[in-house]
Specification:
Helix 1 runs parallel beside helix 3. The two termini are about 10 Å apart. The radius of gyration is 14 Å and the shape is globular. The chain has one domain (about 1-135): Rossmann fold (3-Layer(aba) Sandwich), CATH 3.40.50.1010. It is an alpha/beta fold. It has a five-stranded parallel β-sheet with strand order 3-2-1-4-5, with helices on both faces. Helix content is about 60%, strand content about 10%.
């Protein structure tokens, strides 16, 4: 199984956001164990770094968090064509549109997110972390 992890899934783990952290942690654990192929977008990596630094007030912790993340998931390359496709859709949330476009371009089975509505209309399957776990475990 190949999944694109939305930013909120990663942040749930890093910032220990309850009640979501446990299922999101299990998703990342499956990625780390190579039971599923996990990806994040480039924009997610930069957003995660920014938000971890903002909430922890520590650049060092932000680098540690992103460093650990990069050991667990792969970063999906964003090509010029991906940007153009996302731009042409004129979606309300350009970042989510780009995540969906990238997920489709690398043939992900699902986008893992808690905000499923944000990905409606992008012609890719979207599941919450707990729904992915039900399919796997």
């Amino acid at each position: 199984m190949k999944i694109m992890c939305d930013t909120n899934v990663i942040l749930d783990v890093l910032l220990e956001r309850e009640p979501f952290a446990e299922d999101s942690y299990k998703i990342l654990e499956l990625c780390e164990e190579h039971k599923i192929d996990g990806f994040v977008s480039v924009s997610s990596v930069t957003n995660i770094f920014y938000l971890v630094r903002k909430y922890t007030h520590s650049t060092e912790l932000a680098y540690k968090a992103v460093g650990k993340l990069l050991e667990i998931v792969k970063v999906c390359s964003v090509k010029n064509n991906d940007i153009l496709i996302a731009f042409q859709k004129k979606a309300k949330n350009f970042e989510d549109c780009l995540v969906a476009t990238c997920a489709k371009s690398i043939h992900c089975d699902y986008i893992a997110t808690r905000n499923k509505r944000d990905f409606e209309g992008f012609e890719i399957s979207v599941l919450a972390p707990n729904e992915i776990l039900l399919k796997i475990l």
